[in-house]
DNA sequence: CATATAAAAGCAACCGTTTGCATTAAAATG
DNA sequence: CATTTTAATGCAAACGGTTGCTTTTATATG
């Protein structure tokens, strides 16, 4: 079929092992020989056989990408595909294979992961979400499997490799930005709190308040899960109050966009009466009315860094667990303005 | 490391080849022997080694998933991730591996595909987009590689395996629905026309008009590429006209959502003054104000059917190219109502 | 100059399955 | 009962690299 190492060896007049070692640039092959071999490889158009080398080295060069168990909404978040793209770009470059793993619920997902492991279908896993008490991560940890977490490690932080944004800092900057615009009454709107980034961003928000001597008001923090249909009245109630926030940090563009729409219905103008800042810088941010000032978290890079970590740990198993922080940046649009002066302060 | 076929053979008191044939349920092994072997496999917890069998059968059991070359917007479309999930679920079930392939532009993408092919990293490819004159598809076709297209085949339709919606029908039903609500002046709003589904949906729209003896008015059809920033004035101009459409078919939720926003700015109420129907049933449809009536195209199933086709063609190479049509369904929300009676008809 | 040492290349076993062909055992046939 | 046919199993050579160890060759040492 295609050209093998033996044919190259024959043409170059050396043994197959010499060809193999030349490919890896093994030091015990002389420069002259290497050049001779490389010429032969070029001439024949040699490409190493992935399967054969996987078998010989007992290394599948395959990375499993674990998506969260499906609840349809989650996937509307462009984050996942961007991260997958980041991973795949790196895999493509380094001649790795990536295989996405998904399941309709947690137990199916776990099942698939187990058979993937048993069949040696993946060398390691990149987990694209992080939440408290996740059975998948627990399994990977307990089995001593190689994995990297995109997001924050809930426990065993020192033993797990993870790639994340500095969500505390991001939350702090978001709130600080609003504060710098003169806002004092700032709310925090979040979705599913089991996803860890939510909490981090909130911590950052609280930190910024504290740094500016603004008392934290728990009644300004609402958690809504409108995506799953269950509209909770908390947010609406809060907006009705005369003492409502003049600005909001929303943990996500989709939520922020929802907030803006709610405001329209309640005759609250954004940004004049309410400033909004959010995260992810997705298309929702651009499509929102007014377009949202949003913190871009570099999803693509989160993916590619995770893949890079994965590969270096595969190739160098005694590396220690590292954490990688991917920078974020604020994209200013029309949803935040200076707080209008009011008489009551 | 893990348990091999030889250990199973030893325990069962047969040869390795018998074990191998038992796994494939080969007819020339007696039932008694098979049972004996299966017991041994269970007892040892045997799992076949993927790499070894790939090597021996010269079959990598790996499917490449080709994403369109990146223009950031494209990926905001939840379609891709859903399709990937559909593919991956099937791959996971059938012990296949899927590897996503992407590149920042067409030439990089092509490059990656070529090395993937050369290294035997994929058995076949699923192309997740279809446009006219696509170099990637041309390459795959000319090299005689196995691929399945999600979307419509631009040429060589009879030789290519593809999985698609009946977009003509979907477009027709969308328009027909508006017509059934009494609309006669119906516009068509589309994005990038090089993506083939756009044209099909438009054909369906035209068909519905014709079937109802409604003259087709080209001035009612606008193509906008607002996502790439280039806002074209055509749509706005059309909406300003007194004789503007009373309803729109939009080729995509994102566009429809944009249209609704434009209407707000122009004091046109949706759906009272303008009904809108669109496609994809994404989160954008649910988030839009008012929420969009949209045709769900079953992205997930498009992916899983494509994977199923791929696998059956890998395992049975002399199968003829088939096309698979995945059904769509309309999801009615608040963006379409009966046309208000007006005096001029 | 003989010998120790280092550098370069080759040998051959191995990774775990698959599969064509040979072999054996059992059943059918003359 | 000998012989052909059929069914069931085993043998051993692939598949294409990798790698520990040995052999060869070149260089340094006493």
Please, could you describe this protein's structure?
- Two copies of one chain form a homodimer.
- Chain A is of the alpha/beta class.
- Chain A has 13 helices and twelve strands.
- The first copy, chain A, has helices at residues 5-12, 16-23, 31-44, 50-57, 78-94, 106-118, 135-142, 167-180, 196-211, 234-240, 253-265, 283-287, 299-315; strands at residues 62-66, 97-101, 124-127, 147-150, 161-165, 186-190, 221-223, 247-250, 275-279, 293-296, 323-326, 329-331.
- A six-stranded parallel sheet of chain A has the order 2-1-3-4-5-11, with helices on both faces. In chain A, strands 7-6-8-9-10-12 form a six-stranded mixed sheet, with helices on both faces.
- In chain A, helix 1 crosses helix 3, helix 5 runs parallel beside helix 13 (299-315) and helix 8 crosses helix 9 (196-211).
- The longest helix of chain A is centred in the N-terminal third of the chain and has 17 residues, at 78-94.
- The radius of gyration of chain A is 26 Å and the shape is elongated.
- In chain A, 48% of the residues are buried.
- The model of chain A has no long low-confidence stretch (mean pLDDT 90).
- The interface between A and B is large, with 55 and 55 residues.
- Chain A binds a DNA duplex (30 and 30 nucleotides) through helix 2 and helix 4.
């Amino acid at each position: 079929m295609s050209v093998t190492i033996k044919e190259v060896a024959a043409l170059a007049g050396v043994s197959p092992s010499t060809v193999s070692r030349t490919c890896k640039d093994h030091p015990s092959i002389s420069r002259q020989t290497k050049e001779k071999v490389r010429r032969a490889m070029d001439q024949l158009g040699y490409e190493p056989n992935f399967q054969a080398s996987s078998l010989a080295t007992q290394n599948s060069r395959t990375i499993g990408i674990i998506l969260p168990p499906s609840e349809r909404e989650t996937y509307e978040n462009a984050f996942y595909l961007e991260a997958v793209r980041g991973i795949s770009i790196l895999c493509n470059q380094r001649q790795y294979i990536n295989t996405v793993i998904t399941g309709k619920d947690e137990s199916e997902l776990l099942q698939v992961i187990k058979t993937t492991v048993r069949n040696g279908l993946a060398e390691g896993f990149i987990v694209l979400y992080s939440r408290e008490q996740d059975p998948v991560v627990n399994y990977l940890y307990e089995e001593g499997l190689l994995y990297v977490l995109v997001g924050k490690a809930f426990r065993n932080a020192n033993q797990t490799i993870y790639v994340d944004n500095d969500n505390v800092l991001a939350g702090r900057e978001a709130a600080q930005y609003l504060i710098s615009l003169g806002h004092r009454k700032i709310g925090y709107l979040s979705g599913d709190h089991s996803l860890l980034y939510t909490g981090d961003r909130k911590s950052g928000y609280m930190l910024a308040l504290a740094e500016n001597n603004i008392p934290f008001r728990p009644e300004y923090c609402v958690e809504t899960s409108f995506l799953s249909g269950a509209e909770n009245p908390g947010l609406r109630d809060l907006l009705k109050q005369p003492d409502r926030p003049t600005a909001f940090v929303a943990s996500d563009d989709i939520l922020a966009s929802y907030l803006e729409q709610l405001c329209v219905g309640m005759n609250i103008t954004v940004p004049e009466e309410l400033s909004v800042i959010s995260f992810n810088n997705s298309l929702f941010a651009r499509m929102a009315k007014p377009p949202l000032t949003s913190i871009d978290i570099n999803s693509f890079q989160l993916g590619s860094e995770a893949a890079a970590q994965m590969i270096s740990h595969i190739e160098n198993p005694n590396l220690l667990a590292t954490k990688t922080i991917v920078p974020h940046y604020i994209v200013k649009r029309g949803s935040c303005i200076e707080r209008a002066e009011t008489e009551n302060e």
